[in-house]
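Figure caption, in words: inputs first, then the predicted bound structure.
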Amino acid sequence: MLAFFFLSFVSLCHGFLVNSTIDDSFPDQLTGEIVQYSPAEAWNNGRNCDRCSARPSQSLLHRETWHDGTFNRNNGSNAFPNQPLFASVRFKGEAVYVYCVIPRTADFPAGHSDMTFFIDNQRVGVFVRNPPGTPGFDYDVLVYQNTSIPPGPHELIIQNGNRNGPKSILMLDRIVYSYDNGEPEKRQTALETSTIVGIVLGALAAICLIVVGVYWYFACRRRKTAQPAQPLKLELETGGSGMGVHSLNLPAASQSAPYSYQRDYAHSSNSYHPSGYSFNNLTPEPHHPRPDPYSTPSDRPPAYLSKY
Ligand SMILES: *[C@@H]1O[C@H](CO)[C@@H](O)[C@H](O)[C@H]1NC(C)=O
Ligand SMILES: *[C@@H]1O[C@H](CO)[C@@H](O)[C@H](O)[C@H]1NC(C)=O
Ligand SMILES: *[C@@H]1O[C@H](CO)[C@@H](O)[C@H](O)[C@H]1NC(C)=O
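Bound structure (2-acetamido-2-deoxy-beta-D-glucopyranose present):
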């Protein structure tokens, strides 16, 4: 249960993420950043590209736009044979998602995908796919996502193709990133929520302390009342009579509570006979301290404590 509260607390601390979408062709409405393409001439604004063979349904694309680039080791679709293509964008956040439209066809358009992703110049992922060779396109394909980026400014670079690698197409639809919007209203709510969580945690801790305290109180009491067994046994050994509780010189602690003593003793001794006051069971093993049945729980913390 504590783990649950802890987890909710952690998720609250990272809670106020909102998304911003950068279209392939329009600036980030938040920051004005646009996707940069390189080499610029190797990329086409797909919607306006008459010579492009990839013709997806515009209406299924974000803002009905996409950017189309093809890497080709050989002379072909662009003036940059065997040069990988790049799309890059800057954002300030802690998660990023890249969406593409991907041809299913093997040719016209050649639908092989071979993408590599970099965040802050660190290679963080790849997306490689062979087309099934059927007509049409797959829309809204999440080709890369990263939800564990340290909050702050970052640069995402998408590379299409690898030098001397296979021909590959990249049709970029949009990039989504998540950031902490820092809205005071939401922070207020979050503060209130964390206060409530704090109170709940405090109450839980108090309950735990009380439970432990009560437990120790009773454990100590039991031990106290169980103690007289030891002096009693010694008395029996030295006295040799083995008869009668009345003749025993009991310590003060047990005298103050003779009934509980007798009751506890009866509990702890299997062969106690209330009628005859016979304590014979004790004499055969005078040198072995009688195991105290209550010593175990007070020496070790109770099992439930180990959970915390
Ligand atoms: C942001 O967008 C991604 C993918 O589009 C989604 O998985 C995530 O839940 C969104 N996050 C928020 C805070 O809306
Ligand atoms: C590409 O075309 C140019 C001329 O446009 C030619 O010089 C070059 O050899 C060709 N390269 C390949 C790999 O076909
Ligand atoms: C996410 O990006 C960070 C760098 O910002 C990187 O260390 C990590 O490996 C990436 N994770 C994934 C799943 O790509």
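Residues 5-11, 228-299, 304-308 have pLDDT under 50 and may be disordered.
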